[in-house]
Amino acid sequence: MHLKEELNKQQLKAVEFAGKHLLVLAGAGTGKTRTIIARAAYLIENGANPSKIQILTFTKKAANEIVERVKASLPQSNGRSLSGATFHSWCNQLIIKYPNLFGAASYTVIDPDDQLGLMKMVSGSHSDVYSKLRIKPQQLLDVYSYARNTKKNLTESIRILIYKGKEDKDTEYEITAMKPNVEILLRAYQKKKMEQRYLDYDDLLLVVSTQLKTNPEARKLLSQDLDYLLVDEMQDTNPLQWELLSPFIDICNLFCVGDDAQSIYSFRGADFKNVHQFKERVPNSEVFKLEKNYRSTQEILDISNWLLEKSPIDYKKELQSVRGDGEVPLLLNVSDEWQEANWVADEILKNYTDEDRRFSDHLILSRSQYYTKTLQAVFIRRKIPYVTYGGRKFLQAAHIKDLVSLLRIVNNPYDEIAWVRFLTFWEGIGEVRASRIMAVIIADEGKTDIPTLLQGAIPGKDGIKIAELYNAVQKEKGKVGKMVDIAYDAMSLGLAFRYRKDWIEKRKGDFPVLKLLANSYSSLGEFIGEGLLDNAEKMNGAPVLSESQLETDEEKDHVIISTIHSAKGLEADVCIVLNVSPKSFPSAWSLDDVDAIEEDRRVLYVALTRAKNRLIITRNTASIAAIHKKSIPSNNGQQSDDAETYFLTAIPDGLVRQETIGHDFKTVKDAPEPNKIDLSSGMDFS
DNA sequence: TGAGCTCTAGGCTAT
DNA sequence: CTAGAGCTCA
C-alpha cells in the first residue's frame, strides 16, 4: 500500500492500531487527515466491509475529501460503499433509512431562518408573555439550542448566553423572573415544531441519540450496520454529540482524532472534555500522540508556539518543524481595508507572475465572512479568480427558497412555513390569504387531495395553474432533479420579475446549480434535509458545487478566501491572515470573558498554522495607535485593557518582520481621484 | 388586502 | 449591506 510509505512511525502505529478504541491527539500539521484516511484504507485492505465504516467530520467538504482520498488510494471499486458525512447529515440519513424506528421520515428539516420565522410566530401569538421579556426571538433560539447541545438547564443557559455567565444577586433575580416566561415560549415553539413535523438541526442529533439511548432495538439495528466509526475534529464535539457517540462504544470501534489547541466551537457548545477525558469515559481505549509537524517551516511554528505559550492554559504542546527553516512571517500594518485588499492583490499577482506560484497556492483567512467583502470587490476588479468558503448556505438564498418551498410542501403538507412562502409567491396572494388557504388544507387532514383543495381555495386561472403545478411535481416524487425542472419552468417568470433588480447578474445562474445539487440526491427528504446542510462554495460570487465538477485546470486555479472556522484542515503555500487587530483578536465580543479570549487565541492559532511557507498577518495601524494612547479612561472607570489582551502586543523581535504602508495612494492601484465639488453653490445668503 | 417605497438600526464564528 | 418597520396607494 503506497500510503504506508508516506507515514511516520507514530502515524503508522495509529493506523495499524489493533485495540478497541483509540484517540489520536494530533497537533496542527502533524498529518491528522492523512492518518484518518490511511486508517480507513487500512481497515478496508484488511477485510473490513467499507459499507460498515462511517467517517464523521464537521463539514461536508471535509467528509467528501476524506472519502475521495481513501478511494483513490485503493484498487478500483474497493471502497465504493465507504461513506463520510457530518454528524447532522448522518443522522438525517439514518432517520430516512429507518422511518419506523425514528418515526420522523416525512419530517422537514428547517434551517435557522425558518426557526427564526417560527419563533417569531410564537412570540407574536404569545405577545402577553413575549412583551414582558427584553429578549429577541433569535436569543430565545440561541438559549434553546445552547441548552440542548450542552445538556445544561434553562437557568444556566440563560445565564451564560444572556448574562455572560454572571452570578451576582441582580443577575440571579432577573433570571428567576424571566425564566418562566422563556419556558412558556420555548415550549410553545416546541409544540409548533411537532405539529408541523419540523426537525431543526439539533433535533436531527437528538432524535437519533434518544433512540439509541432508550431503545435496545435501535442499538441492535445500528450494530448490524456499523463496525467502525472514524471521527474527525473530536475537540469540537459537544455534549449532545458525545451522547450520540457514546452508545457506539459497545457497538463498534471508535477512532477519533483531534487537537485541544484547535477547539474553536465552544459558542456552539463544544467541550474539549470529550478529548481530555476520553480515556476515563471510554473503556478499552488508548490515546496516541502525533507531534511532528510536516506542514510549516520553523518560523511559522515559532510564532504559533509563542501565541499558545502566552495562554494561561497549558496545552503541553510545542510544534517542531520537520522541514526546517524558511521565511520570517510578515506583519503588515495597513491604514484601511482598501489598502489592505490592494496590497494583498499585488502580493498575489507578484507571486503568480514572478514566483511561479498558482492562485490556488494562496489562502486568505478572515475572522468573519463580512470582512472579506472589500477584498472580493478588489479581486473582481483586478481579475483574480477566487472561491469563498463559509457564509450563507446556497439553499438559504431567497430565490432558491421560493422554489424549494414547493418541494417542501410536497414532502410534508404540514409545513406551514413552506406553504406561506409558496402561496405568497403568486401575484395577488399575500400573507393573509395564504394563511386562510393553508388553514383549509391543514384542517382537511389529507382527506381530499391537495390540488383539488388548492383549486377550490384560489379562484380563477391561478387556482388551476397552481393546482396543476403541484400535481406535476408530486408525480415526479423521487426524481428530485425532475421536480426542480418542473418547478423552475412554472416559476421562472415570477422569479425573474420578483428579483428583477439582480436576476440576470446574480440569481438566474443559481438554478442550474440547484438542479445539479438536486440530482445528486436520491430522495426528496435527503435533498431538503442534507441540501440545507451543504456548504455552498462561491466562485467570484457565483455558486459552484464542488471542485470535481470543474473541467479545466485553469478553472481549478483560484485563490481561496475563507473564514477561519471554515478553514480547518486547509493548508496553503502562502497564507494571509486579515485584520489581526485589537478588538478583533480577541474580538470585542469576548472582552471580560477569559474563556472567550482563549477561544479567540485558538482561532488565531488555527489561522497561523495553515501556512506552509509564507505567513502574512495584516492589522490596522489606527487601531494599534488607539490602544497605545490609553489616555481616555472611560467615565464608568472601565479602564480599557485592550493593550493587555491584544494577542500581538509585545511580540518578541525576530519572530516577525514588520512593514507599514501609510496613506500613500500611489500604492493603491486604481484608486479614484476624488471629484472636486463646490458645496457653496446654489445658495443665496443675502 | 397586497405591493412597493423609504428610512433606520444593527452586523461574528456554524451544522 | 440587509432586514424589518412603517407608510402610501391601488
From TrEMBL:
ATP binds at A26, G27, A28, G29, T30, G31, K32, T33. Keywords: ATP-binding, Helicase, Hydrolase, Isomerase, Nucleotide-binding. It catalyses: Couples ATP hydrolysis with the unwinding of duplex DNA by translocating in the 3'-5' direction; ATP + H2O = ADP + phosphate + H(+). PANTHER family: DNA 3'-5' HELICASE, UVRD / RECB / PCRA DNA HELICASE FAMILY MEMBER. The keyword Nucleotide-binding applies. The keyword Aminoacyl-tRNA synthetase does not apply. One of its GO terms (cellular component) is cytosol. Belongs to the helicase family. UvrD subfamily. This is DNA 3'-5' helicase. It comes from Maribacter stanieri. It comes from the Bacteria. GO terms for molecular function: 3'-5' DNA helicase activity; ATP binding; ATP hydrolysis activity; DNA binding. Signal peptide: none annotated. CDD domains: DEXQc_UvrD (cd17932). GO terms for biological process: recombinational repair. It is an enzyme of class 5 (isomerase). Its EC number is 5.6.2.4. Residues 5-297 form the UvrD-like helicase ATP-binding domain. InterPro entries: DExx_box_DNA_helicase_dom_sf (IPR013986), DNA_helicase_UvrD-like_C (IPR014017), DNA_helicase_UvrD/REP (IPR000212), P-loop_NTPase (IPR027417), UvrD-like_ATP-bd (IPR014016). Pfam families: UvrD-helicase, UvrD_C. Residues 298-569 form the UvrD-like helicase C-terminal domain.
